[in-house]
Specification:
By secondary structure, the protein is an alpha+beta fold. The protein is built from 2 helices and 3 strands, in the order E-E-H-E-H. It starts with a strand and ends with a helix.
């Protein structure tokens, strides 16, 4: 069974931006999923890295429950704003 992962973008500031949530069997597969997302969705601005930025992949089991729920709520809020 797969595990759930959050893809976040980090930069020079303290704020972490949640980009997406997906399922993968292990961290290696999760990292491959990030590459796949970037390769197959070049139109997604949030998947582009600028100077001083990097991606962070977080496994659900390694996040505090309140942190995970806040990230999922943020994703849902932003998805509601995407054009259909």
């Amino acid at each position: 069974m797969g595990k759930r992962y959050l893809l976040c973008k980090c930069g020079s500031g303290p704020e972490r931006v949640v980009i997406d949530c997906f399922t993968a069997s292990c961290m290696d597969e999760a990292n491959q999923a990030v590459k796949w997302l970037r390769d197959h969705h070049p139109e997604r601005e949030e998947l582009r890295i600028g100077p001083g930025e990097f991606f962070e992949v977080l496994e659900e089991e390694h996040c505090a429950p309140e942190e995970w729920e806040a990230a999922m709520a943020e994703l849902e809020r932003r998805r509601g704003k995407r054009p259909a």
